[in-house]
Amino acid sequence: MTGERLDGLLTRAARTYPDRPALADGDRVWTYRELDEAVGRLAAGLASHGVRPGDRIGVLVPRSAEAVLAIHAGLRAGAVVAPLDVRNPVARTSRMLRQAGLTRLLTVAASETAAVKAAGGDADPGIQALDGGIGLLHTRERAPGEPLPAPAREGGYVLFTSGSTGMPKGVLLSHSNVAHFAVWAAAETGLRPTDRIGSQAALTFDLSTFDLFAAAAAGACTVLMPERLKAFPADVVDWLTEQRISVLYAVPSLYVSLLERGGAGDALPPALRTLLYAGEPFPPRALETLLALAADRPVYNFYGPTETNVCTYLRVPATWTAAQEATVGSAVPGDVVDVFDETGRPTPGRGEIHVAGATVFLGYLVDGVLHDPARQVRFRDGVVRRAYPTGDLGRRTDGGEIVLSGRRDSQIKRHGYRVDTAEIESVLLETPGIRAAAVVAKTGEHEGQLWAYAQGTVSERDVLGALRTHLPLYMVPDRAVVVPAFPLNARGKTDRLRLAAEAAPTSPPPKETR
């Protein structure tokens, strides 16, 4: 591992590129010197209000320059920082606070009410004013003798992912985990101080670590895309052009919308020189189109679950076509990636992908306590390493690249996020009036959609309403169907394959907007 600290990336950039633009949010622009000074003032304010190294701080701030400042300041204060989405239901945010053991929340006036509600009865209702319009809310005090996971005493980064128990899982990444990726990615993609990175990913999404920290590693400028543009692909293309964005890291679904509905299918924005994607498979025909438009501009595929951020990469050949096999490339330097069969041995066939090395997380935070799911595994080179079993299935090519082929559990990728359908089912089963539930990814004419089936004394409107109360929008199914009974397979269990393949019921879906 590099041993690099995330706050050190910003400090070094401020020394090396003090007058270069570091952060742009609309008409507001900070140079690296100005950003470093603002972060320093905010970090000092945190310390003066009792924040100690190792404390766990949530950042519940709308995606903005203030959120970026809060993240950097928390890291500089030695805290474990957890970005949170203000659009999440309060009940879900509250569960995240408990899971990660967050003792503080950073917020702004626009989200103070949600912060207090999420913190619940444990919170001191007084919000202490800090620099830049940011407030500090105490959710609970860390007891004097309360132990911290040893690697987290000097801070770290928490991102949440969907969990099968109905509770979001807090993924604890060390400074070194994220910084190793950021420094490598900046070098691999040739980032330079003149680059302008189009930052469109939610700060709770692991893609954002490139936008914030790889930018700092190279002295590039992070340009925050207005959230409202996401629904209008043509406006996104105009924004990329007007802002002279040179590097974009996004999920394939965004690229597809820009190509098909944004006008980028005719020509890419002229300043865009490097395109990166991750989070889900790229539809082959659309990728072929993008490569043709990109010509000699590099297009990278990054792969890795949140627990490893990015562990493999591929500079996609410009000559690649949809008729060829797609891979996610080979291991990032510092990582080892291999495929293991059910006996725990490396296999040339299909098996579970395991990752060891510099980007592998410290573990999950469950009720504030660190649980490490990694295990000691002997890789094909004979070396035993601490490895994370990803749950992704795949195989190795003769050249050592990885080909993905599904999951071994109930997780799916949706809008770039990993979603555990068991978590959605857990929420449904806690809803009054629902006796049984099943959530499936549809095949056939509704392929690509997620449907929730429920049995009980509820309406389809009730089902979707309950889900919207407890889940972020990206996890809410496209359709809810109430059934008198579930079809069963030969083993007497719910026939999920039949539910996934069946056509729509004759009754129309409830007319609701998101």
From TrEMBL:
Pfam families: AMP-binding, AMP-binding_C
Residue span(s) of domain AMP-binding enzyme C-terminal: 423-493
Occurrences of domain AMP-dependent synthetase/ligase (ranges): 11-365
CDD domains associated with the record: A_NRPS (cd05930)
PANTHER family assigned to the protein according to its UniProt record, in alphabetical order: FATTY ACID SYNTHASE, NONRIBOSOMAL PEPTIDE SYNTHETASE
Name this polypeptide is given: Amino acid adenylation domain-containing protein
Species of provenance: Streptomyces cinerochromogenes
Lineage start: Bacteria, Bacillati, Actinomycetota, Actinomycetes, Kitasatosporales
